[in-house]
Amino acid sequence: MATERRRRFLAGTGALVAGAWAPAAMSVSLGRPEATFAATWEQAGRHFVGVLAATRDGVRTLARHEVPTRAHGIAVEPQGTILLVARRPGDWLLRFDPRRGTVLDWDWSDGDFVCNGHVIRAGEGRRLFTTETSLETGEGSIGVRDARSLAVVARWPTGGIDPHELVLGPDGALWVANGGIETRPETGRTKHGVERMDSSLVRLDPVSGRLGNRWRLDDHRLGLRHLAVTRDGTIGIALQAEHDDDQARQAAPVLALWDRRHGLRPVPLPPGILLAGYGGSVAALGAGIAVSCPRANKVVRWDLADGKARWQAPVQLPQACPIAAGWLGGAGEIAHANAAGASTVERLRLDNAIRLDNHWALMKDAGVPARA
To answer: Is residue 227 part of a domain?
Structure first.
């Protein structure tokens, strides 16, 4: 299936779509971009990867390339190229050069494994890690890839099913969120046996792949999906609730925290706050953490200190989802908040025809990843 999809796509719409990359190619009246993002989006029913620039006058596209299916996870490389993974169950991984507007490398699924949407760099840039699922057994694994060719050279089990995002923790270990929900090749993203879901946070050795500790929440209907590491080494996990009861799902927490002292625990919402039980993405934000809630049209924020999470005023943003270093993406606009407790939020217009996907990554103008 992946081979046929690749053949059709490259023969048809896979050509370069657009893109002047350099800020100098933009109108002088727009001024210097305030930020540039590696991003993915849908536009007029087609899927794109590329670079967006936030300017004083709104958001502009600097480079874009069409892809065959919706993209999900993003990793910016030091040389300014971008790694992007298809949304799960995904059959492609690519390296995109925004300065030339071209795809440098494709890797397509061999039909035995599918990608689960995320990739990171490791081993001083020599290796890539992707989350994957075996189509034969349903077991989750980490695809260990050669960073130059994108080819899989090894696979490590994650000790669960449905692994999603992965990060390198402050201890240098590989941390993975197992979503714990069964899917099947013939039914794509359809969830099976939700009552048996087994979501977990696991720690793996980044050299050998040896599986170490595993943590679970008491409420097994809370799925661990996306991860972020804060300045003090706390790991924030965006949650997606799978309760049958609608009221329980609406009131479910959207954030869990892990640290050495307290382990893994959910962060309860203030009384009366309902977020539809769905965290779209999570990011460190100043001394705190933020979770986007697209079904509740807001980004919610906490200040973190001494292992405690203190609720801050949320940012109202329609269909809020991607977050990176204080930049928040939504439908028709993006917002910028300097810190978790910031009272002033700057907003910029976004072309209504662009529908942002779950994630984006902040870049420097020169193409080097920006630091939060």
So the answer is: yes
DSSP state of 369: B
Among the ranges given (255-269, 331-345, 347-361), the one the predictor scored with the smallest mean pLDDT: 331-345
d(CA 201, CA 221): 14
Domain annotation covers residue 247: yes
pLDDT, position 340? 55
- pLDDT tens-digit readout, 73-125: 999 999 999 999 999 888 999 999 999 888 999 999 888 899 999 999 987 88
**Domain hosting residue 161, numbered range:** 17-363
* Domain membership flag for residue 369: no
What are the C-alpha distances in Å from 313 to residues 52, 237, 256, 332? Answer: 27, 19, 18, 21
**What does the longest C-alpha to C-alpha distance in the chain come to?**
57
In a domain, 70, yes or no: yes
Question: Given this model, what pLDDT does residue 179 score?
Answer: 93
Q: Are residues 91 and 115 in contact, defined by beta-carbon separation less than 8 angstroms?
A: yes
Torsion of CA 33, 36, 39, 43, to 10 degrees: 10
- The helix (H) or strand (E) run that includes residue 248 is helix 246-250
pTM for the model stands at: 0.88
Q: Which helix (H) or strand (E) holds 131?
A: strand 127-134
Give the closest residue to 342 by CA, choosing from 286, 292, 296: 286
Q: Phi and psi dihedrals of 344, rounded to 5?
A: -100, 130
Number of independent structural domains in the chain: 1
CATH classification of the domain holding 322 = 2.130.10.10
